[in-house]
Known about the structure:
- By secondary structure, this protein is an alpha+beta fold.
- The protein has one helix at about 1-15, and strands spanning about 35, 40-50, 50-55, 60-65, 70-80, 95-100, 105-115.
- A 5-stranded antiparallel β-sheet has the order 1-2-5-7-6, with no helix packed on it.
Amino acid sequence: MKTLLLKCFALFAVVTxxxxxxxxxxxxxGSDTTSDAGDAGxxxxxxxxxxxxxxxxxxxxxTCHSACGESDYTLTCRGGDLMPSTIPEPxxxxxxxxxxxxxxxxxxxxxxxxxx
Length: 116
């Protein structure tokens, strides 16, 4: 089970490392809700630059596309490391949508609109 979680996290990290910040994005108040939960690890949601999703063809070529819109940022929400874990949801006012990518069982990524 732990090996599967590590593989999922590694895949999530590869996708996340494909991030490229476009223009300056102002993260709205309330988008960063992370806190230290002791043995459970860091929980909550944290904003970051919009991510790219890249795929590698059998030929070795790679194609990438933005997971979010031009005026969006990525919000990554994590539950605790202890099982079972509840993944926090972003505030409705942030107007976020789930990015349909593989993630660890205690994490979910969203596209959210930048602040003004």
